[in-house]
Amino acid sequence: MNMAAITEKCPLIAILRGIKTEEAEQYVSKLIELGYYFIEVPLNSPNALDTIRLLQQKFGDRCCIGAGTVTDVELLKQVLETGAKLIVTPNVNPEVIKLAKENGCIIFVGIMTPSEAFLAINSGAKLLKIFPAEIVGPVGFKAIKSVLPKDVSCFPVGGVKADTAQMQSYISLGAKGFGLGSALYSAGISFDQFTQNATNFQLAWQEVQK
């Protein structure tokens, strides 16, 4: 998938940290119904690889299922065996970036500083996860974004809420989308509350697009 195709999709990455395999299908089905495309199961979730494999088999032709917290090559190899095509990292590991790209994966690379950003870019990354965004903030985001190549897309992750003012503060500085964490899903959340959270994020995103 090229960059244009990626940015045409709903650029809200649904992070389901802590989700159990037995509930994943119901929750992801709702996300797809609401228009989400990028769906991440962090590897520090219970039986994460089993969950990712199940979701890839069930929904892989309708959305982009993948793994988060992919910190090294050995973990990446395990994820690749599931057939998933979305890789999200909290760190910059050039070997992970290279192998993910060689296997046709979409990879969002976690960075916090300009030095990390350019290491990621020089390793082939085009999608940067600005993490943790609640520490970097809009001021830090603006400073980092100002020195990056224009063909690199940035996605704040960490502390993002279904808040149009917060989202707009980043969008106005060039953010292309967001990673949605605990404000969307946390372990043990009810399905009704999750549905409301997912709906609220979509409404907020639609508002900032006007």
TrEMBL record:
A Gene Ontology molecular function term of the record: lyase activity
Protein name: 2-dehydro-3-deoxy-6-phosphogalactonate aldolase
Pfam families named in the record: Aldolase
Keyword Transferase recorded: no
InterPro entries tied to this protein: Aldlse_KDPG_KHG (IPR000887), Aldolase_TIM (IPR013785)
Pathway: Carbohydrate acid metabolism
Entry-linked CDD domains: KDPG_aldolase
Organism: Gallibacterium salpingitidis
